[in-house]
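Title: Comparing notes on inverse folding

I've been comparing how different people in this forum approach sequence design from structure. To keep things fair, I'm posting one structure and asking everyone to reply with a full sequence. Here's the target:
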């Protein structure tokens, strides 16, 4: 993995990272916003401590653990990645509630256009703020966007220690089961 200096990471602040999307995906995973490592590499969930890629594999979504640089392979499994807020920051707490709400509005339009079967938002707090749903919990939601169902997953950041790799994979697996039963 490429090692970046603090200055190189800081230079990635506010950079945009292209979505990995296509029409009609089974699941569109939605992160909070790109971190600086993701922005510096151009690959989603690129920070080594992020548990997105291991959880994706351990839950059965992918036959092997993909590396962030292999993100386009997700499309062959009917999966994609986007973010609630497009701009990169060092920490999600640098985002304003207004950015989350505008991100939720833009995400809703994107989902309506792409029509995935499931939208999986990675982070209950981000979901609550973006969609003004203060009572949301991890799991399937009653909200739909057109015909797209919504599932809230735990944030896979290594900072979210409440969720272990095993419990993350279990929750991702619940979504995978729901997505394959359709």
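Reply #1:
Here's my take.
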């Amino acid at each position: 993995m490429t090692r970046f200096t603090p200055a190189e990471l800081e230079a990635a602040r506010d950079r945009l990272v292209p979505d990995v999307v296509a029409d009609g995906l089974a699941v569109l995973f939605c992160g909070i916003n790109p971190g600086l490592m993701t922005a510096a590499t151009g690959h989603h969930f690129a920070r080594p401590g992020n548990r997105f890629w291991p959880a994706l594999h351990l839950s059965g979504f992918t036959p092997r653990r993909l590396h962030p640089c292999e993100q386009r392979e997700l499309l062959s499994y009917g999966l994609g990645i986007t973010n609630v807020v497009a701009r990169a920051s060092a920490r999600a707490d640098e985002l304003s509630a207004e950015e989350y709400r505008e991100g939720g509005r833009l995400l809703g339009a994107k989902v309506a256009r792409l029509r995935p079967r499931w939208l999986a938002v990675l982070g209950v707090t981000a979901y609550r703020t973006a969609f003004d749903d203060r009572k949301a919990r991890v799991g399937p939601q009653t909200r739909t966007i057109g015909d797209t169902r919504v599932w809230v997953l735990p944030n896979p950041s290594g900072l979210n220690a409440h969720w272990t790799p095993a419990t993350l994979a279990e929750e991702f697996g619940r979504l995978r089961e729901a997505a394959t039963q359709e």
